């Protein structure tokens, strides 16, 4: 069994991994840039070591991270999500240096990280994929020819892309000509790979993904699906498990497809197979994420399975503890990404000092975060500062409980997406459980919450004055 883990990440996901280690009796080692010296993951881990003054470079230096793991006596490394979590070089260095990488094999990361190679693998396995180019597009002329064949609109995508970057929708040949060099440039800068491919654009699909676990002994199971359709500019805002939009027959089909996809690429550890569901209820493979997902807690809430602990067990060489038949789901769970952004100002980042913070609680409520009163949110990283996860036995009960939990939580000193999430929950269309990836764009009025928010701020200010006068 793994004894000590270096966590090659920061923020809430590093805190999440520290907690899993603590429950398993495993020592945790945190790393931090100087901008993160006072971050919660540094305070919570058993040991913590500086990566120097650069805000990002240390988190992206694979050799340095592995050297530090060895120097501190770690026998494993967990990459979290983001940064080097889907970098095959980090996994290769770990393997070469005798450090267990808590994730899939380097070859699988490379194969699934190449979107055209992933599509080819899925096609061969009989997994439905969206119509598009057979492989990478070699020139603008070739792209125009393929787009004419499959029909506009199309999506021009970076082969090594992810996180909503390196993607452009093109409605006609003129837009394809204008965007072709832009996507290539963005792909080269963001991913170090200038290759691109084409896919048919599916208008307002539902974004459904399936969580899988696979051990080193050939056992693969799924933990049901998550609905990630509430997103803005390809960035997820809210995730739900299971999807309120699927029938049991669709759910069974999708789970079987995900397991088949994992077996097709000889996958091990935790992963996510992402699908698009069109207006005709057809599923198409989109991509496979070879890491822990931000939204993994909603799956944990409906299944009772700690995915991070299972990752560690699998990396230790142990067999899965559950068969597919033993995995049961119960109720619904929803996750809100609480970002330090101002929804009323085009979601402009709102970094700075958190003057007061109150976590919510009560039945069925969980908060995964890295913030506290007095914490300074640095401007160098992703704006997500916490995740609120809510569970309830029924969909209607979930809506009611989530509204209560969002109203309970308090983050002051910076703008957050909390009031925006409340507006989404109060929306009648959302409450029906029938929505797609076009929901946010179709409801710009949801940022018009000025009266509610100002009243809340006034109440908070009054409470602060009273508390100060009472010496509290």
Write up what this structure looks like.
There is one protein chain. The protein is 36% helix and 25% strand. With 472 residues, the protein is α+β, with helices and mostly antiparallel strands. The protein has three domains: 4-102, Rossmann fold (3-Layer(aba) Sandwich), CATH 3.40.50; 131-200, ATP-grasp fold, A domain (Dna Ligase, domain 1), CATH 3.30.1490; 206-457, 2-Layer Sandwich (D-amino Acid Aminotransferase, Chain A, domain 1), CATH 3.30.470. Strands 13-12-9-10-11-14-21-19 form an eight-stranded antiparallel sheet, sandwiched between helices. A hairpin with a 5-residue loop joins strand 9 (206-214) and strand 10. Helix 3 (62-71) runs parallel beside helix 4, helix 4 (88-97) packs antiparallel against helix 5 and helix 7 packs across helix 8 (173-191). The longest helix has 20 residues, at 450-469. The radius of gyration is 22 Å and the shape is globular. The model has no long low-confidence stretch (mean pLDDT 94).
């Amino acid at each position: 069994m793994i004894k000590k883990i270096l966590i090659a990440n920061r923020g809430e996901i590093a805190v999440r991994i520290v907690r899993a280690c603590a429950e398993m009796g495993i020592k945790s080692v945190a790393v931090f840039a100087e901008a993160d010296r006072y971050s919660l993951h540094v305070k919570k881990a058993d040991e913590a070591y500086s990566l120097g003054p650069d805000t990002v470079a240390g988190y992206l230096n694979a050799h340095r991270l592995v050297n530090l793991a060895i120097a501190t006596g770690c026998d494993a490394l967990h990459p979290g999500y983001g940064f080097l979590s889907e970098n095959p070089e980090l996994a290769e260095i770990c393997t070469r240096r005798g450090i267990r990488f808590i994730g899939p094999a380097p070859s699988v990361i490379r194969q699934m990280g190449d979107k055209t190679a992933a599509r080819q693998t899925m096609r061969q396995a009989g997994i439905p994929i969206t119509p598009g180019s057979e492989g990478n597009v070699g020139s603008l002329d070739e792209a125009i020819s393929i787009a004419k064949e499959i029909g506009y609109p199309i999506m021009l995508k970076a082969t090594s892309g992810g996180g909503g970057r390196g993607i452009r929708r093109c409605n006609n040949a003129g837009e394809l000509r204008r965007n072709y060099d832009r996507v290539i440039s963005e792909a080269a800068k963001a991913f170090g790979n200038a290759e691109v491919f084409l896919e048919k654009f599916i208008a307002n699909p539902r974004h459904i993904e399936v969580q899988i676990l696979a051990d080193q002994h050939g056992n693969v199971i799924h933990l049901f699906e998550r609905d990630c359709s509430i997103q803005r500019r390809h960035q997820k805002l809210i995730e739900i498990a299971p999807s309120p939009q699927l029938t049991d027959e669709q759910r069974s089909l999708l789970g079987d497809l995900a397991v088949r996809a994992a077996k097709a690429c000889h996958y091990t550890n935790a992963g996510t197979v992402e699908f698009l569901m069109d207006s005709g209820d057809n599923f198409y493979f989109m991509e496979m994420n070879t890491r822990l997902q931000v939204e993994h807690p909603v799956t944990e809430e409906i299944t009772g399975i700690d995915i991070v602990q299972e990752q560690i067990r699998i990396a230790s060489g142990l067999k899965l503890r559950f068969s597919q038949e033993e995995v049961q789901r119960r109720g619904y769970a929803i996750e809100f990404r609480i970002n330090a952004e101002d929804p009323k100002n085009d979601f402009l980042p709102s970094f700075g000092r958190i003057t007061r913070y109150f976590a919510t609680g009560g039945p069925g409520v969980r908060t995964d975060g890295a913030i506290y009163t007095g914490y300074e949110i640095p401007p160098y990283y992703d704006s997500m500062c916490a995740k609120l996860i809510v569970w309830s036995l029924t969909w209607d009960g979930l809506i009611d409980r989530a509204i209560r939990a969002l109203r309970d939580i308090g983050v002051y000193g910076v703008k957050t997406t909390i009031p925006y999430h409340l507006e989404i929950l109060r929306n009648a269309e959302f409450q029906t459980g029938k929505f797609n990836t076009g929901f946010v764009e179709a409801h710009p009025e949801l940022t018009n919450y000025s009266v509610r928010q100002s009243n809340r701020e006034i109440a908070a200010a009054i409470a602060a004055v009273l508390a100060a006068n009472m010496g509290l």
